[in-house]
Specification:
InterPro entries: PurS (IPR003850), PurS-like_sf (IPR036604). Part of the FGAM synthase complex composed of 1 PurL, 1 PurQ and 2 PurS subunits. Pathway: Purine metabolism; IMP biosynthesis via de novo pathway; 5-amino-1-(5-phospho-D-ribosyl)imidazole from N(2)-formyl-N(1)-(5-phospho-D-ribosyl)glycinamide: step 1/2. Its EC number is 6.3.5.3. 6% of the residues are buried. Strands 2-1-3 form a 3-stranded antiparallel beta sheet, with helices on one face. The longest helix is centred in the C-terminal third of the chain and has 16 residues. It has one domain: 2-Layer Sandwich (Mth169, Chain: A). The N and C termini lie close together (10 Å). It is of the alpha+beta class. The chain contains 2 helices and 3 strands, in the order βαβαβ.
Length: 85
């Protein structure tokens, strides 16, 4: 079994209104060193697959077909084999 972790965020060219509000709030709390904030989504998906290659291919397909909006979002992922208890 594998555990896929998918991190979704806006593409650099897309304005992130929630991230901007968070940055402003941090400045109001005297965290003046904050230059930017990017807000996003995080998914953990347990996968049954015969090997890492299959699990990775499935995770990428899930991300690209459902988890992200390819017009405005990008993603990164990590995948690890996990022990079944």
């Amino acid at each position: 079994m594998y555990l896929g972790k998918v991190y979704v965020s806006y593409k650099p060219s897309v304005f992130d209104p929630q991230g901007d509000v968070i940055k402003t709030s941090l400045h109001q709390l005297n965290f003046q060193g904050v230059e930017s904030v990017t807000q996003g989504k995080y998914f953990e998906i347990k996968l049954v697959a015969t090997n890492l290659t299959e699990a990775t291919a499935n995770l990428v397909k899930m991300a690209e077909e459902l988890l992200i909006n390819p017009n405005t979002e990008t993603y990164q992922y990590a995948i690890d084999e996990i022990e079944v208890l």
